[in-house]
From TrEMBL:
Protein name: cGMP-dependent protein kinase
GO cellular component, as recorded: cAMP-dependent protein kinase complex
Keywords: ATP-binding, Kinase, Nucleotide-binding, Serine/threonine-protein kinase, Transferase
Organism: Effrenium voratum
Chain ranges of the Protein kinase domain: 351-607
Domain Cyclic nucleotide-binding: 1-44, 94-206, 209-331
Pfam family, one: cNMP_binding
EC assignment: 2.7.11.12
Family named by the database record: Belongs to the protein kinase superfamily. AGC Ser/Thr protein kinase family. cGMP subfamily.
Superkingdom of the organism of origin: Eukaryota
Molecular function per GO: ATP binding; cAMP-dependent protein kinase activity; cGMP-dependent protein kinase activity; protein tyrosine kinase activity
Residues that bind ATP: 380
Domain AGC-kinase C-terminal: from-to ranges: 608-662
Catalytic activity: L-threonyl-[protein] + ATP = O-phospho-L-threonyl-[protein] + ADP + H(+); L-seryl-[protein] + ATP = O-phospho-L-seryl-[protein] + ADP + H(+)
Amino acid sequence: MRPSQAGDYFGERSVVFDEVRGATIVAATAVCLLSLNREKFAELRLEDYVKFADRKTGVATIEAKPPSEKTESERQLMLSALQESSTLGGKSGSLLESQAEALVDLMWKQTVEARQAVITQGNMADYFYIIQAGSFALQEGGIPKEVLKPGDCFGELPLLQLRPHQHSVAAKERSTVWVIDRWQFKNILFKVPEHKVFEYIGYLDRVQILDALSLDEKTFTAQALTEMTFEEGDVILKQGETGDTFYILFDGEVTVLINGNQVARLQASTEELTAHHFGEKALLSSQPRAATVQVTSPQAKVLALDRIAFNQLLGSLEEIIQAQEDGRTRATKNLKGVTAKPFQKIFRKDLVGVGLLGVGQFGAVELVAHKYAEETFAMKSCSKGLLVKTKKKDVVLNEKMALSYVLSPFIIQLFETYSDDQTLYLLLEAALGGDLHGLFCRKKLYGSERHVVFYTAGATLALDYLHKRRIIHRDLRPENILITTEGYMKLCDFGLAKFVVEQSHTNCGCPDYYAPEMVLASGHGSALDWWTLGVLLFELMAGQPPFESPNPMQIFARILHGLRKAPYLPEIGRAPADLVKNLLRKEPADRLPVRLGIAKLKDHRFFHDMNWSLLADLKFEAPYKPNVRSKRDLANFHPGNTLPVPAEYKDDSTFWDKDFAS
């Protein structure tokens, strides 16, 4: 653990919660300490002022170097290695040519001296390697297993499965390898790249039937497109068959046939950025296909999207088109629990700082007031330089995109976004009751079923709302639940949120809240959020997460072993324990809301005193109402005093931040 410094304190959890000491602290030098006994601590009500450490999301810092220049022969060796990998390419792999090219583009060259180890058995996987020159010895338990030579690659399987290396690898001689870090590796394999999203949006812009979509909606749609490859002679559409899928041909050639007669020939090229679309009416209704579309080139590549996925992502296209024709806005108005803007547009120059609410990974969250209205907001700032340096641009882009699309009384509201030379800003709703983690610590609410029912019910409504819009949050935990002045909960921090039509493979979140499918990197969807709800319920009842450990690898092992490794489960009560068991099922499809629907979750006996209609209307009495004296009251927040040091940002002309207003 890190050394303690002047100004640090320790022992607070033992005083507040009667916990057994969780660590031994030894003086490394001569020190001077101030101490308080339990009685004096309680007399001074210091539990209201102690800041309990927040858990960090499980995103490790891994060094990524700039890509190295490559000769054509080096590129070919790397591409061959990727395609011949039994894990990535070959007969069982599914590596796309575009993904292989992207991996090669980002890899850097590294020299490894003789006998130098690049992988140690038991360590977590951080890098993927392709051998350019030299040789490496692969060992298991000190026993030689294989010699790796130029054109071989290694390290990919542990990266994909987020597990420790099963082998050690060391250079037999001075060797050269190509390297890519874990995050870039997985982003390429499991995510539509940013430049591809913009390319796909360009294709969507040419589809007249989609003209009613906003830029954000086209972005969501682009991220949901599936790339498919067809061989010569394959029939993509068949005349007379009912269809529900829309296609964009972006590479290759197809012929269009009606009653067996050729009526058109469509050609597309990635080099010339030409594309054609067909089957778009399937997004409106299940009408029989009017023509047959057959591949005539050796291969044809298309992007596909089905109507069910589109409807779940954006709603009915027919209603979207009708709303545009009627001049109606599709945003919900006058929704209970949703703060109205004081003006149609809130300008940053009209906002003044009140005080610090919190400190994030990329900047501060500050309470700001409007000069001309009695309203305050939370202004979240993110250093562009830090976002680029840590390769976390997606964090703020995801948050902006997801929050722009939601409007719920149980989710924090986004009003505006701003940008200047060095910083991005999100202007958010201010919930001045503090966060749930601090509330339960200060007020000793762990185990209070009345409180736990209320907050988990609110979280249930928030998650259900998101899932109906194909959004998964992926970071539900007490620190990310804010309390309003009226005592209601608001889900916040959407930096890890994602629009998912099928599955995502990104590993992220707080390790205590990882689901088994996240640990195994087997792909996850909305069922992951229901797992995190089960962990939240357990923690609020027991005072600690079910799989807690100071060692992340031990946490992951306990998660895979299941609840038999969870302490205190029988002690939290029969009803909460039963619901926890139904949510913390190893198989995502077996979790209660996934298996039987959201109604069955609401009907569980743990919620027998909950009136869901009253809760949705914000008429259910909150069990706790924070003491908030005014819209400028900061008393329920205890931010740390260490702000991240901004990194200088130099505009790279990629316009990645263009969607933030300036």
